[in-house]
Amino acid sequence: MDERRPSLHPAVAEIRRAVRAALADLDPKATVVVALSGGADSLALAAAVAFEAPRARRDALAVIVDHGLQEASAAVAASAAETARGLGLAVRVVRVDVGDEGGPEAAARSARYGALRTEAAERAPAVIVTGHTLDDQAETVLLGLARGSGAASLQGMAAVSDLDGIPLVRPLLDVRRETTRAACTAQGLSWWDDPHNTDDRFARVRVRERVLPALEAEIGPGIAEALARTATQLREDAAAFDEMIAETIEDIVEPAEAGIAVSVAALAANPAALRHRIIRHVVAAEFHQSLTRAQTLEVARLVTHWTGQGPIDLPGCRAARVGGRIEITAR
């Protein structure tokens, strides 16, 4: 008689490995809060967490956020909850009110992450894990490219980020969407296809359904992987720049009345890329505002093309050259 154990499906194995690696780098006492929508990506993630968390002696919880934006949203949430319980996960279903600030996608995202953070904070220490895949990363990079806001918009999503003091982890950023579906099928898990994911009113859907397939057809396979690699490389470059700025900024910045001042000579001595990053960093750190490239260049001209021009109005602040300093003050 053949006593061999049945082989594990490669898709299931890949996702479990990704989750295992992500959990290994986290606080060993942290509860794992899984953002579960009922879609294939988050369901495959939930199944992997349900398998890996007990082996790492961790508590795990699936949080299903019902946005109430579709007629059947309560039934979808209930079905996802039932599936999660069948996997052995504790479950919380949270109904949220979605506003309209920033548009429907942004408002729903804000409400969702607010609910996830609240649930995680109640179980601190805790980490939130989401099912974003390599395909999501590629779409994010292309959308950033369309915005044209520089390298920062091409960095995509970080594998680990911070959500108001709670670690937000994306274990599946190296996993293709087709793999999550294969993993669900192999484990007999039925997923829900959100109709918004095929609604071409949304830019992300158009990128997913039209732009990426066209690029693959015209340029060749591997576009999504190449875009994801680009995001990783740019994120590494940005981290290096941040270290350089941290080392530089202490020597060239000093307090000013109602703001902060930066040495003109020190800014002029730096390469343009670093100079622009320092300007953006100072405004973001001091006034919690983001500058466009045009605004950044206008401030930089106070250093590189000084002709006696007056103050520059910026979001939440004003920049002016005063002697040998650029003073950035509240307005």
UniProtKB/TrEMBL annotation:
MF terms (GO), sorted A to Z: ATP binding; tRNA(Ile)-lysidine synthase activity
Domain tRNA(Ile)-lysidine/2-thiocytidine synthase N-terminal residue range list: 32-209
An example GO biological process term is:
tRNA modification
Compartments in which it is found: Cytoplasm
For this UniProt entry, what is the primary localization, expressed as one broad class? cytoplasm
EC top class, as a word: ligase
GO cellular component, alphabetical, reads: cytoplasm
Q: Could you tell me which SUPFAM superfamilies the record lists for this protein? A: Adenine nucleotide alpha hydrolases-like, MesJ substrate recognition domain-like
Limits of the tRNA(Ile)-lysidine synthase substrate-binding domain? 263-326
| Swiss-Prot/TrEMBL catalytic activity | cytidine(34) in tRNA(Ile2) + L-lysine + ATP = lysidine(34) in tRNA(Ile2) + AMP + diphosphate + H(+)
Write out the residues that bind ATP.
37-42
Biological function: Ligates lysine onto the cytidine present at position 34 of the AUA codon-specific tRNA(Ile) that contains the anticodon CAU, in an ATP-dependent manner. Cytidine is converted to lysidine, thus changing the amino acid specificity of the tRNA from methionine to isoleucine.
Record family assignment: Belongs to the tRNA(Ile)-lysidine synthase family.
Q: Which HAMAP family match?
A: tRNA_Ile_lys_synt
Notes on the domains: The N-terminal region contains the highly conserved SGGXDS motif, predicted to be a P-loop motif involved in ATP binding.
Protein name, UniProt field:
tRNA(Ile)-lysidine synthase
Organism the protein comes from:
Microbacterium aurantiacum
